[in-house]
Amino acid sequence: MSDTAATPPVESVLDNRRASAAIARSLKRRYRAERRFRAYGIAAVGFALLFLAFLFVDIIGKGLPAFTQTMIRLDVTLYPQDLNPEGVTNHEQLLKVLSTANYRKPIFQAITDLFPDVTSRSEQRRLLKLVSPGATFDIRKEVMEAEEAGRSIIGQRVSLLVPTSDDIDQLEKGHINADAPEAERRVSDLEIGWFNRLKERGLIETTFNTTLFTAGDSRSPELAGLWGAIVGSFWTMLVTLALSFPLAVGASIYLEEFAPKNRWTQLIEVNINNLAAVPSIVFGLLGLAVFLNFFGLPRSAPLVGGMVLALMTLPTIIIASRAALKSVPPSIREAALGVGASKVQTVFQHVVPLALPGMLTGTIIGMAQALGETAPLLMIGMIAFIVDIPSGPLDPSTVMPVQIYLWSDLPERAFVEKASAAIMVLLGFLIVMNALAVLLRKRFERKW
Amino acid sequence: MTTLIFVVVLLALTVAGFYLGRSRALVAVSGKARNLHSLPGYYGYYVALWCGIPAFVLLGLWLSAEPYVVERLLVSSLPEAVQELPPNRLGLYINDIRNLADDNIVSRDVGPELRAAADRYNGLKRVSLVAAIVSVLAVAIAGLTYGRHLISPKLRARNGVERVITFFLIASSTIAILTTIGIVMSLVFEASRFFAQVSPLEFLFGLEWSPQIALRADQVGASGRFGAIPLLAGTMLISFIAMCVAAPIGLLSAIYLAEYAPSRIRAMVKPMLEILAGIPTVVYGFFAALTVAPAFREWGEALGLSVSSESALAAGLVMGIMIIPFVSSLSDDVISAVPQAMREGSLGMGATKSETIRRVIFPAALPGIVGGLLLAVSRAIGETMIVVMAAGLAANLTANPLQAVTTVTVQIVTLLVGDQEFDSPKTLAAFALGLLLFCVTLVLNVIALHVVNKYREQYE
What we know:
The complex is a heterodimer of chains A (448) and B (460).
Chain A: H1 3-6, H2 10-63, E1 68-77, H3 80-83, H4 91-99, H5 104-114, H6 121-128, H7 135-148, E2 157-163, H8 166-172, H9 189-200, E3 204-208, H10 211-214, H11 227-258, H12 263-277, H13 280-294, H14 302-326, H15 330-338, H16 343-371, H17 375-379, H18 400-408, H19 413-444
Antiparallel strand pairs in A: 1-2, 1-3
Chain B: H1 2-28, H2 40-76, H3 80-83, H4 87-101, H5 112-150, H6 157-173, H7 175-197, H8 200-205, E1 209-213, E2 223-226, H9 229-260, H10 263-278, H11 281-302, H12 312-337, H13 340-348, H14 353-382, H15 385-390, H16 408-416, H17 425-459
Antiparallel strand pairs in B: 1-2
């Protein structure tokens, strides 16, 4: 300690004071900057989460109405002269006649009976438009089933719940603004008036939309279902799983346990890393050029779609499986080798069982990716309009994401609703798969 | 259906081979397994492999060759006049024969000739099926007996089985290389057919893209011009908008989660951000096309701007949000990899946390972050569904984000969806675009992976 330190000169004290004031000021500024920076971070996270919430709310809000369908109760009289004009009596022949009979007539009769005041032919025809064209199928089914069971309902009066047309359905769900000028909406004042009269009489009911989960695609929104696409997705995923799981596990075992470190294995590794980042549409081009044009496999088939998606998911599963194999400690291998197991025995009886949960987790995540993939499937023609439910991996079919794409492109508002509902179903499947993966990881993954 | 029965029967034979082989081995040493070279099970697998592999290979060959062989035989038996039809007409004729044979609807009048051909077709199919059943089963049984015959206590069954397993492993690891070769070959082959008709210079530097080829001389808007510059510009514009959203938000949220957030919040928020990455792109496309784009148009109208209903802004914004988790998880990895000592040194000198992050951690992590951003750019360039649904089809050369632009991926999809003949330059152009896309993303990925790996080595 020197004297100067004990009694500092005046200027130096002033300097120190000034300096500490400056420091205090700058500290304030720096702390403000600190808080600002932190707020940016929170804002960024908040923005992303807000968007996520908005996306879900928007899609659920749009899609929920699609799970219900507005129905109309009609008392249909099945006159024999309409359905069986030639008076066929033979059971076999009768079935044939009934399967091709004109069921529009009974519906037309039923709906015009409800409005005796509507007499002009053109307005009556507009009345028929309240009812979905699918109503004829419902009546046909009812008649055929009764006939096959041996209790004919021809000549009787049956009460049936049939779907309304999609415009009326949208009106009931409140998506059509009745106050807008008549020319700007799809439903005219006349139709709204009719609909309100039906409603007053209690003939309009809203039921759960089972069509959505039982039917294939259709040009009429109220008859379009997702089942065809779900089955198509199932076959595609089956092919993808059958191809990608064994190949990916085989490749990862070879690279992790057997491969010598040389240029060849290095080349394979570089390839896998690059394939993981190749745009998915390029895999579609590969499928089009190689599987369809070179090997001549059928277009629109889940088999080809599955093959393309398998190639696309291979890198994901390989990378996850290799990480799982890597995490098995070398002591396991050494112990097995030490008691005389061969290399193959060590790997397949000791290492792989321990790494299996990790491999399965990677596989499920890869499958979830493949289930949501659309672009490569457009290339190989899985975008066709397909009404039938595919019954095998060679039948033409479509998959859920492609169905969403197709529906969202159509002008009817009811299809937008359907597309949102399809998104909800697809997201449901993905959530289940990812939850399974998380569960698998939590339950079985061991930390060494 | 027949294939399925075939496979089940063969599998049953293979399983039988396993049990036969194992019992035969045990009988050969009269039950004393220790006198065998390998464990008894390996003798079972040995016989099963002998039985299964040749039979399944033969079955696969039959399945892939049968349609061609039957068709060739059918054609050679048709009348001369039909045989000399051009290939596509002949194909239609054969289709009709097939439909008639399957009792489906036929597009032409069924004459006796066609009827006879259909009968012959059915006959050929039946013969081929019987031949396949007999030969495949014969091979399976022959393999089984031969394998069983080979078994003796000294046979090195385990080594044989393990050789087959190793072969399968090596084969499956080469699939990755085969895929890459397949991609490159198919793209290059088809693109070269395109460049034989359109000069590569026009493709790479042309300013006009309108792939419709005029059928009549006076047709409007169909000039058959293949200049890719407007597509590249559109792709760049949308990717740029996407990165403007994803880079700051992804980076800031990664910094917040890695440096500031308490572990409880981190554990909650991170998986929620990952959800964004797990949502299928078609869902984002739907959202962009039906919610974001109309909203932008309305806002634009309110402000007096003319916003296209397929604006680049809407597609870019939604794409940016899709990429956020990609940027944030990559940056998170790099930021966490910065050694703790650097943080502590800076904090010990009196720097605040944000100063430490901005002046010490960020520069140290920069190469890795750049690598991650490059990977994100390549993601954005290759992204398809969002732009197919939310961006336009018209190839405008513009930098205005409120207008509609089109991208490389959109054009690939529009060129290839629907029925087209496969030789027109219009269809082949899709492969040229695919090649371009593949090359650009490949270069970006190689650079990015190189940067990331180099950086990782620095701190390990």
